[in-house]
Amino acid sequence: MGERTILAGKSRKRQLLLPIAAMTLGALLLLVGLAMFLVDQFDDTAVTREQRVVESGFAQQLRQFDALIVPQVNWDKAVEKVDRTLDMAFADLDFGNQLYTFDGFTHTFFVDGDERVTYAYVYGQHLDPVQFEPFRAVTRQLLRPIREAEARRGPIRPHAQGKGPITRPIQANGIARINGKAYVIMASLVQPDLGYVQPKGPRATVVINAMPIDRTMLNAFAARYLLDRLDLVAAPEVNRDRAYLPLKAPDGAVVAALSWVPRKPGTALLHAMMMPLTAAIALLALVSWTIVRRSAVIVDELIASEMRAKHLAYHDTLTRLPNRALLFERLRGLLAALSPRWPLLGMLCIDLDRFKEVNDTLGHQAGDELLKVMADRLRALARDEHHAFTARLGGDEFVLVALATDRDAIDSLAQRCLAALLTPVDSEFGRLDVGCSIGIAMIDGSVGEPSLALRQADLALYRAKARGRGCVTFYEPEMEAAFQSRRVLETSLRAALESSAFHMVYQPQVDAGGTVRAYEALLRWDHPEHGAISPASFIPLAEECGLILGIGEFVLRQVFAETNAWAGVRVAINVSAIQMRAPGFAAKLVQIAAWAGIDPARYDIELTETALLTDTPATNENFSVLKRMGFAIVLDDFGTGNSSLSLLHRFRVDKIKIDRSFVADLGQSIEAETLVGAIVKLARSFHLGVIAEGVETEAQKRLLIAAGCEEFQGFLTGRPVPARSIAEVLRPKQGEQRRA
Ligand code: C2E
Ligand code: MG
Ligand code: MG
User: Fold this and answer.
1) Whose C-alpha lies nearest to ligand 1, atom 4?
2) How many CB atoms sit inside 10 A of residue 610's CB?
3) Coil, strand, or helix at residue 260?
4) What DSSP letter does each residue of 597-631 carry, written as one string?
5) Do 207 and 109 contact (CB within 8 A), yes or no?
6) Which of 121, 227, 408, 427 sits at a 20 to 30 Å CA gap from 478?
7) Which protein residue's CA is at the shortest distance from atom 21 of ligand 1?
8) H-helix or E-strand spanning residue 572
9) How far is residue 698's CA from residue 512's CA, in Å, rounded to a whole number?
10) DSSP letter at 659?
11) 349 beta partners
């Protein structure tokens, strides 16, 4: 697993976790934001309400001031002493002093119908009317509504005895800034209350009172309306911590403002809840954090298991080498990496030579062990090469790929592979001794498809194996053609089996006196184009593609059917190593023998050494069934294989057949005679029969007889012929026998 994969895993993790973390954080922020917003709304509403209460409270306060003055101005006596005439003593006593001392009005002025100031009383002193001047402007504004109301009221009729006051108060008030100080100003029209005294003219005297909005007034107001830190300021300010009520002059201009610290129930609530709220948010954050952490662990596991799955999908579990899928993926990269400096790509298809034997004789564990060691060796070899790597295709087949400058470099790499895999493996199962065959494809920039490269290397490997063990073969274009013709042959072989295009011929085996002792059954394929084809050219192919089992079954049926009636001669049948290795072979043979009704004691089964060498349970079982049924066993082509003496001993073979290659050399090399003599002696000492095949000349026969050979088979004594020719020969004999 490379660094790249780990980085990819990390970025995947970030992709998965970031949104979760961001969402959690977002939700928390939203919650806090919402709380703040609600607190603000709550506070704003409360402040607005409080402002309205203060506003109406202040208006009420002004009306109360007005009410204080009403008994003084709505009074017949006041009309008499203030409007009609001006009685200073009365004015001082009942207005200036009275209103100052008891009601707190610091200023009292009288303004007559012509807006002349006739009286001024300021802070308990009778002063010159000039003191009024600063109040003139605001007074003018207040007088306007008063004069209008006075005009609307009209003349006053005296009051009927015993009834209440005849006039309603006519007043106006407002706020004014005078000499930098805010004042409450009240204007009240002097009117009779009972009507016994009439005002002097159409416009009666108006009493002006003023009172500064000072600390005392503010404190009293604040106490009544429970306002915190009430102050008077020049104008409303922008300050979220305070509330303001603008105080306006009669013309609407803002003269001053009341300012106080408003009640904020939302904020208060927030303060009260701060501790539990903080705890709750902390808890929420903790929970979210835990969830994110947990998710991180789960995501880690998911990514790890995904990486494991990926590794599994791309690697062979036994050797941990890349598998076919990864091989192709990397090959594509390597093909793209071909450059003028590394113009070639060598692909080595490596197949272990005796792996099947190890697997079959020592078991799968030994096979696995061997594969692991071989994989390690190839891996080590690849490590020293440029851009090289090894993969396992399956079974005992490996691939080594490397960039190269030329063909020789790859050839030398292949030789190193051969040498490396030839070194025996010492394992707990003993010394494992295998080698390998190697097929090589040299790929240049013109081959774009990895599968094509593998196919070429595979074809070369096939050829290497066909040449024998431990061979290195480079791919040649003719291999493709050969492969194709093999494919054609295989197809027609299959068709031949289905259409029973096979028949048997029989070659006699004679003794020294020339008497036919037996016939060997030999298979022929009647090819529609090529005529009768020798099994030597198609049996190996049939063995390879599994057709041999079907063909073998045909042979047994055919031979038993054709030869059952032959008396006095034995019949030899060839059985392939593949058949001997097939688990159901013996059972099939039993079944066919019963079907044909033959006597097994009259039949030889010819096996090659390789058929016995593969010491699998199935082979052993098949062999012992053959023996038990009474078949004789002949070791065919003796001397070409391992010629292991232990085989002769272990499997109770009945006869050995000297291979025709030795017979062919007889008379030409002294070694051949020695060898044949030794084989015959060996057979004798094991009490086995011995026959020579491929005897073509009298000279060969003479030498064989001299060596002690008893039976002979070959063109000299008879070519293979169809069954019917033999049956004709045998019939008269049987007739004679019957007569005798
Ligand atoms: P084999 O069992 O060694 O059979 C003997 C081969 O030698 C036969 O070739 C035969 O025609 C040939 N032969 C006989 N006399 C002479 C001679 O004087 N000189 C030379 N040069 N050759 C001679 P054939 O029929 O082409 O069979 C080739 C091989 O195919 C056989 O070798 C056997 O291994 C295999 N085979 C033949 N029939 C069957 C069969 O029914 N089943 C199986 N499994 N294999 C068969
Ligand atoms: Mg034979
Ligand atoms: Mg033979």
Assistant:
1) 522
2) 17
3) strand
4) T--GGGEEEEE-HHHHHS--HHHHHHHHHHHHHT-
5) yes
6) 408
7) 694
8) strand 570-574
9) 11
10) -
11) 399, 439
Contact between 335 and 443 under an 8 Å Cβ cutoff? The reply is yes
Encode 468-517 in three state secondary structure: CCCCEEECCHHHHHHHHHHHHHHHHHHHHHHCCCEEEEEEEEEECCCCEE
pTM of the model: 0.54
Place of tokens 């073509």: 696
CA distance 50 to 685: 132
- What CA–CA distances, in Å, run from 171 to 67, 132, 199, 425? 9, 19, 16, 126
Eight-state DSSP code of residue 251: T
Tell me the domains of the chain and their CATH numbers: 1-272 (no CATH), 315-476 (3.30.70.270), 503-739 (3.20.20.450)
pLDDT digits (tens, 9 = 90+) for 671-681: 899 999 999 99
Which residue type, as a one-letter code, is found at position 338? L
Residues with CB under 6 A from ligand 1: 507, 522-523, 534-536, 539, 552, 555, 574-576, 606, 636-637, 660, 693-696, 714-715, 720
Q: Is residue 158 over pLDDT 90?
A: no
Q: Are 589 and 556 in contact (CB under 8 A)?
A: yes
State mean pLDDT over 637-663: 85
Radius of gyration of the chain from its Cα atoms, rounded to whole angstroms: 64
Q: Give the pLDDT confidence of 334-376 residue by residue, as tens digits.
A: 888 888 998 999 999 999 988 988 888 888 999 999 999 999 9
